[in-house]
Amino acid sequence: MFTRPLGHDNVREWLRSAISARRLAGGYLFMGPDGIGKAGVALEFAAAQRCEAGTGWSCCECGECKRVLKGIHPSVKSFAKPADKTAFPVELVREIVDEASVKALEPGRRVFIVADADRFNESSANAFLKTLEEPPKDLTFVLLANNAAQVLPTILSRCQPVRFAPLDDAQLQRATQGWDGLPVSPEGRAILSRAAQGSPGMLRRLAEGKVLETARDFLKSVRDDPFHASELMTAALTGDDNEAKREQLRDILALLTAALRDRMSGALGAFDVKPLTRAIGQEANSADAMAAAVLRLDDLRERVDGNANLKLACDAIALSWPA
Question: Residue 168 and residue 198: Cα distance in Å, rounded?
């Protein structure tokens, strides 16, 4: 059963207006943190373009909407980077281009939802550009990207950008109400919520991946023995393949970045924010030093998103961690 993602009402209204005015762009780029609800809203948007209710948005009840939301409508197709690949493969792009050129099986608009738009490399992007710039008149592309900074300019320039804001605390609490696996302690939940940056999906993944425990073990040892801390982090990466391990390391980095932001808040005098490992009043580092550390961590995350050796990345994280 399809559940509408919480929040993003402004995005829905803007897209509804485009449908009602018959001013749909050929390509849209949905940008926002992983798990924020982009894919769900993309399905609603696709259903809205075929909805029988005529309201400008998906009613979720008519036959057209139900087929789209169940993923069985022949005019709405979804594509994503294979889980074991770092970059979006050229072969899959060619499949998308070929599908776009095929005549629709049913009358009405078609929608292709393409996840991992921030994982296109130059080759795969070049294979896509002409079709994305001039899609068939009955086709709308909806691209999804978790990291806007990694979307290639050639892709970004050919799409209408749509930014998804983080959920506020009340919405995040509603979205996660009754979930198993979340920390029992309010402090643990608060830490994970800050690291998730308003994304219910990311919050669930952080909790299920035991990321809080891994981050705490790392922080307990990193000041005394950075290489031991690196070994602990490397050992926590237990995915089935390198890409799964990269995803786990990204989640750990998200929590460590939240810890650094807490320390930066403490250095600026925000004593009401509890950090991950020690009392904020003990923070001796300046806010500038904490900001520089956050930037270094962001740079390391970009390397992890690429093809960096994971053990060397863990070493770099530990060695650059501010004491």
Answer: 6
